[in-house]
Description:
This is IclR family transcriptional regulator. This protein has helices at about 5-15, 20-30, 35-45, 60-70, 75-90, 135-140, 145-150, 165-180, 220-225, 230-240; strands spanning about 20, 50, 55-60, 95-100, 105-110, 125, 185, 195-200, 205-215. It is of the alpha+beta class and about 250 residues long. The protein is elongated.
Amino acid sequence: MSQSLDRALTLLSGLAREAKTLDQLAEEIGVHKSTVLRLLRTLESHHFVRREGQRHYRLGSALFDLAQQALEDRDVRRSAQSALAGLNARTGHTIHLASYEDGEVVYIDKFEGRHSVRMYSRIGKRAPLHCTAVGKVLVAAMTPEKRADVVSRIDFFVRTPNTITTPSAYETELDLVADRGYAVDNAEHEDFIHCIAAPVRGPGGVVLAAASISVPKVLLDYDGLMGLVPELAAAAEEASVHSGWTGNRKGKSE
Length: 254
């Protein structure tokens, strides 16, 4: 990667968190202000960055346009939308749609619950594979060869006291997920949230994404969460049919 491109991408990452001044950005990437100013002017000319007042810079509209186009290009997001919106309306809980990308979960759609507890996730946000229900669904659906490779690359860092911390325990969990057709995050990613997830399939049974219901533990206990599995499974099946699945449940993701 060229040095200028690397610096420009670092600037954009820094601005994703909050508006910053030229001095702050120069300090972050460790170069003179004149270099940062040249990069900012180029990014601004293409609407990737915009000035706010005299001193601050923020992300520009071009990034949001690109993000929306990238999301719309994911056919499963469009085809699953009505089924997941219906699940959200029926349960009142937060619904996610997530896909696998480069060793992580990526949330590609989200339907907010009616409760006020704020969740970690947002569209475009990445999350670990080992402690999320959607991650377990996506890895469990892989071919044995790919699954072994993916698991070998996971850093089993601890998020909560319930987080799975070893490859062997994770493999056992994946076998269970593949057998029963859904996964559980029992407060493994965030200690106040628990989730269930199921696969959304496409032609030939290939798993395209994972759909989940996420609920704060204060609103619903574990038994109550498990009681939502049939609702989730029905919605995931509806989304799968809309995505081209014809009933071959034996399909594996590539």
